[in-house]
Design goal:
The protein is about 75% helix and about 0% strand. By secondary structure, it is mainly α.
């Protein structure tokens, strides 16, 4: 009698295939167990998370390049810069293209600061996770979101369809916010209240500080702004 042969076990995915596998699980199979398992993976490191955020932001910016270039051209035309010798479409696209890597670096810095603050609050609420684990789990959600957001920005430039894709982008943003709360909950192994507080308290604090700062700047610069807008709106007399 022949003994049954065991089927060879496939090696676990590595490299880019592992990235895609982690992103797919985080996006399509969200649960406490999923994010807890992602946080316990051997490669759950903040350096990988930073790389994901950088690449996701860069790819998203490049995908949205045509729409951003058109927007920049319209802004330059509205401010009268095109009449002063500034290139319109080409200049706008080149500005976005050169600024995409800088924007990606800024996204990484903001992500690192945000993840650190969230994990600090989570530890205060009794969380069990670490900064590396939370950054890895959050990046598995945020990196593909950047790519999808860039694609939706590109599609929103289609005439008569931009509003629909704008609504879809808003729905995707809400879904990502829910996934981030689930990631904080799964990594730190506590309740929904602690997870929501850990994630949203920094956002609310930053929004309050930003609104106060913007209000103060507007109140200080209101005369200059009014003069600037009046100079733009006033037609230049012909020769």
């Amino acid at each position: 009698m022949n003994e049954p042969t065991n089927a060879p076990m496939l090696p676990p995915p590595s490299g880019v295939s592992e990235w895609v596998s982690v992103w797919r699980d985080a996006i399509t199979r969200p649960s406490d167990t999923t994010f807890a398992r992602i946080a316990q993976m051997p490669n759950a490191k903040s350096t990988t998370a930073f790389l994901w955020v950088f690449l996701g932001s860069l790819v998203g910016s490049l995908l949205a390049l045509p729409a951003q270039g058109v927007m920049m051209s319209q802004m330059m035309r509205g401010m009268g810069l095109e009449e002063q010798g500034f290139p319109a479409a080409g200049g706008g696209i080149m500005t976005v293209l050169c600024g995409a890597p800088i924007g990606a670096v800024v996204s990484v810095v903001l992500f690192a600061i945000g993840a650190g603050i969230v994990q600090l609050l989570a530890r205060m609420f009794g969380g069990r996770g670490t900064f590396d684990q939370l950054a890895y789990a959050l990046a598995a959600v945020i990196a593909p979101f950047y790519v999808v957001s860039g694609l939706l920005s590109l599609l929103s430039a289609i005439p008569f369809a931009g509003f629909c894709f704008g609504l879809l982008g808003f729905a995707v943003a809400i879904y990502v916010l829910v996934l981030e709360v689930m990631a904080v909950k799964g990594v730190n192994q506590f309740g929904w209240g602690q997870a929501i507080g850990s994630l949203l308290l920094p956002v609310l604090a930053a929004a309050c500080c930003l609104s106060v700062a913007v209000g103060a700047l507007l109140s200080m610069a209101s005369p200059e702004l009014m003069e600037f807008f009046n100079s733009i709106m006033t037609p230049v007399p012909g020769p």
